[in-house]
Amino acid sequence: MNNRFVIFSCGCNCQNYIDLNILSVKSQLYDNYVHVIVDDASTDKTFKKLKKYNDKRIFVYRNKVNQKWIPNALQYLNKHIQSEEDVILTVDLDDWLAHSKVLDNLNDVYNTHNVWMTYSNFKYLKSGRSSNWIPTFTQKILQEKSFRENVWSFTHLRTMKAFLWKNIDKNDLKGPDGKYLRCTYDMAIGFPMLEMSSPEHIFHIPEIQYIYNDTNPSNVDKSNLKNEQKVNDLYIRSKMKYQSLKRDI
Fold first, then answer.
1. 199: preceding bond cis by omega (within 30 degrees)
2. How does pLDDT run across 30-54, given as a tens digit for each residue?
3. Counting runs of H as helices and runs of E as strands, what totals does the chain give?
């Protein structure tokens, strides 16, 4: 089976990294994919660089006002999902895929194992260090669905079946102020999908599949959203767990 992949990338002021992002996707040996890209109101040359790519699999959008990941996904990602069985990949616009066989590997995993979502190891760009120091989910955590009570281990490269994304209550993507979260989107979407999938439908890929660009000055860990990120972390963890999703395929 040739799974269809929907790669979603959004970001702001990524002119120094956009070519690496796009070329890492275009270099994939597996070609059943679309790449949905959102320039989230950049003030640099990000959009100018994006316009030079003429590829029927690349879809580019540009915002006049910065919206952050969740509103962008709801507005643009959903347009390109053709089937509940599509596989979504989240690749931030200033990051990129690690090598040309990432999609091949994922296609094999989804065909071989009865999985709905995957996570893997990544490499930090600055140090070249692997993320293998981050613990994977134990069988106990998977069985108890105690993801919210434990270390965040759902690391890049994150992939998931489209029906999981579609089954998230959109109110759970909002913060305590009732507005869509401006950061910590990975937890906001990750916890519900992990809980809907666990334990037998979650697969960890130990090989490095993703390059995490920790050299970008606008990285959230270095920005004024850092305190907001901590508040969101606690708020998301406090929400009720999702029930396991039952599907007849």
1. yes
2. 999 999 999 999 999 999 999 999 8
3. 8, 8
Beta strands (DSSP E) in 1-110 are: 5-11, 33-39, 58-62, 87-90, 96-97
The answer to whether the beta carbons of residues 210 and 98 sit under 8 Å apart is: yes
| Angstrom distances, CA of residue 11 to CA of 34, 40, 68, 116, 242 | 17, 5, 8, 26, 29
**Residue whose entry in the numeric block shows the structure tokens 């102020």:** 177
Question: Could you give the count of Cα atoms lying within 13 Å of 177 in the half-sphere of its Cβ?
Answer: 7
Q: CB atoms < 10 A from the CB of 30, how many?
A: 17
pLDDT in tens, 128-146: 999 999 999 999 999 999 9
**Sign of the dihedral through C-alpha 92, 93, 95, 98:** positive
Q: Cβ-count burial of 119 within 10 angstroms (0-12 exposed, 13-18 middle, 19+ buried)? A: buried
Pairwise CA distance, residues 19 & 2, whole Å = 27
Cα(123)–Cα(211) distance, rounded to whole angstroms? 5
Q: Specify the pLDDT at position 54.
A: 87
DSSP-H helix ranges across 9-101: 18-26, 46-50, 69-75
Tokens of residue 27, six digits = 């270099």
* Residue ranges of the chain whose pLDDT lies below 70: 219-225, 248-249
Cα–Cα distance list, 19 to 15, 23, 48, 177, 242 (Å): 8, 6, 11, 36, 38
Cβ atoms < 10 Å from Cβ of 173: 20
